[in-house]
Amino acid sequence: MAKAARKYTILRYAFDAPVVIGSYLLALQFIGLQNLAESSLSNYLFGFVIIAIWYTAASFSRLYSDRRSNKFSEEIIFIIYSLILFSILLSSVSFFVRNYFKFTGYFFSIFIGLLFTLLTVTKYIIRKLLHAAIFEGSLFDNVLIVGATTSAIDFYDTINRYYYYGYKCIGYINDEQTDFSDCNYLGNLDSLTTLLQKGNIDEVMIALPNSEMNQIQSCIEICDYYQTDARIVPDLQQYTTASTQVNNIGLLPVINVRPLPLDKSENKLVKRVFDIVFAGLFFLILGWWLLPLIALAIKITSKGPAIFKQERWGLNNKKIICYKFRTMVADEHDLDSEGNFQQAVRNDPRITKLGSLLRKTNMDELPQFWNVLIGDMSVVGPRPHPTPLNIESMQNIENYMLRHIVTPGITGWAQVNGFRGETKTPGSMQRRINFDLYYIHRWTFWMDCQIILQTIINIFRGDQNAY
């Protein structure tokens, strides 16, 4: 683990203990112990038991894994996961010590609610403080890149684009100086020993071609000698969207390309049950009154039907009718005079004023919960594209049709990562497809929860690509 990551993890570990105790003491007050002196000594002792249970649950849930490079919504999901494990363990322990500690279900409900709130707030503050420290240059790791492969260039571009990853590249070494963006060339591979002797390198990223195994092993040995962390950035672009795992058979490292998670019947059942429950709750709580209000507003502000129906492609290329609130003037068509599909663009004159608001808040997609109930769509999955865009993209985008091996969704991994709306270039569509394939190969129930949470956050925060 890099030095900055160690400091960050220690900070996150240390802050949880006072948060847990603080939540516990506040919960005691909520149940009527306004004066903490009235609480028995056993209640105070139970606080130490709670701390031990919390760190046990957090270790099982991997709450303290380094997620600087991931969205905060993922950390919230892991907080919820940890709290579920914590509640189970706490209930079990409370049952066995019920003769010594007198607490009710009401107390535990208050305690868990407070703990979730305070944990979310403190971890968000710590995360922002970390990002600020990295941005100011007071907390980052100096990284040296070995090699000049495509993976090396992609790694360099990534850590420069996302400063909060906490890496600063001091340069690269390679036997030949190449066109490597604006990265400093520091010499050939033999320079590694000299550079590590200076002691200003925290981590070495080895990004040599797979064929140069002897050179890779030599670099690892040099890093070990100078006690410098080393990581290999494999030149395996063909596996970036697949679900891969590295393990060993004897001393031989083996890359496993695992089957799709949603090929398993039990995972399909979990996802379908979740879809039905989520869509059902939406209609019971919001849909029955919100959808008619939006439809009425559309009818009042512009001529034409409130609901827009469009043919799209679903699971296994099956054509489905996708329902949306109409956001454009009624007489507009999907195809231009030359038969090309017209995507919505920024300041598109076809979009009505109310339609612009609906698109920015994703509320134009709400009728698709009906698609979810009837099984044409899922709450989370690759966004279905109109038929003309599918036909156009399948000819130009690599692995495009693979996105149809799962049920499409109202929201998806590509959308919450900024790849929604107009695809101006083949490159932007390819990146969207890569995110879709990443989701397909790495699906978990918790990943769906994270995407839904991030979608809700984006509704309130706004999305620059929503127009």
> Whole-Å distance between the termini?
41 Å
Strand order of the largest sheet: 2-1-3-4
Average pLDDT value? 85
The ordered string of helix (H) and strand (E) elements is HHHHEHEHEHEEEHEEHHEHEHHH
Largest sheet: 4 strands, parallel
The value of Rg in angstroms is 26 Å
- How many β strands by DSSP? 10
User: Would you identify the regions where 5 or more consecutive residues have pLDDT less than 50?
Assistant: 34-38
Proportion in β-strands: 5-15%
Could you characterize what this model shows?
By secondary structure, the protein is of the alpha/beta class. It has three domains: 3-136, no CATH class; 141-235, NAD(P)-binding Rossmann-like Domain (Rossmann fold), CATH 3.40.50.720; 263-461, no CATH class. The protein contains 14 helices and ten strands. The protein has helices spanning 3-30, 41-61, 72-96, 105-136, 150-161, 192-197, 213-225, 265-301, 353-360, 368-373, 387-394, 413-416, 426-442, 445-461; strands at 141-146, 167-173, 203-206, 229-232, 244-249, 252-257, 307-313, 319-325, 378-380, 409-411. The strands form four sheets. Strands 2-1-3-4 form a four-stranded parallel sheet, sandwiched between helices. Helix 1 packs antiparallel against helix 2 (41-61) and helix 3 (72-96) packs across helix 14. The longest helix has 37 residues, at 265-301. The protein is globular, with a radius of gyration of 26 Å. It starts with a helix and ends in a 6-residue tail after the last helix. The relative contact order is 0.08.
